[in-house]
């Protein structure tokens, strides 16, 4: 079992986005985030699911060269949505 607040493994990310494609698709989740923000209960549930039940408080460091720092998980997730880098990890 993963520690709460840690990112999903590569296999878990595959399952996470497979789940989104089946139910609401990753792009729809991104539109929800853009429209309603991180305070929306559905967006928060998705963020919790993606991080084993806990949304990391921040700051967030990513695997992205040149832009490794985000103030919080919401900013990081919004960046992934805008850039369509859904599998970018913290």
UniProtKB/TrEMBL annotation:
Q: Name one GO cellular component term.
A: acrosomal vesicle
Tell me where the transmembrane regions lie. none
The UniProt keyword set, sorted, is: Cytoplasmic vesicle, Phosphoprotein, Signal
Give the subcellular location: Cytoplasmic vesicle, Secretory vesicle, Acrosome
Name the major location.
cytoplasm
Phosphoprotein: present as a keyword of the record? yes
**By its UniProt entry, which PANTHER family does this protein fall under?**
ACROSIN-BINDING PROTEIN
The job of this chain, per UniProt, is described as:
Acrosomal protein that maintains proacrosin (pro-ACR) as an enzymatically inactive zymogen in the acrosome. Involved also in the acrosome formation.
Tell me the protein's name.
Acrosin-binding protein
The species this protein belongs to is: Horornis vulcanius
Q: Which gene encodes it?
A: Acrbp
């Amino acid at each position: 079992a993963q520690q709460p607040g840690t990112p999903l493994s590569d296999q878990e990310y595959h399952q996470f986005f497979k789940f989104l494609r089946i139910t609401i698709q990753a792009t729809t989740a991104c539109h929800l985030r853009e429209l309603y923000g991180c305070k929306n209960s559905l967006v928060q549930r998705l963020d919790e699911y993606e991080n084993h039940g806990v949304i990391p408080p921040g700051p967030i460091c990513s695997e992205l060269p040149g832009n490794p720092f985000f103030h919080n998980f919401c900013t990081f997730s919004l960046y992934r949505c805008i850039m369509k880098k859904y599998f970018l990890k913290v």
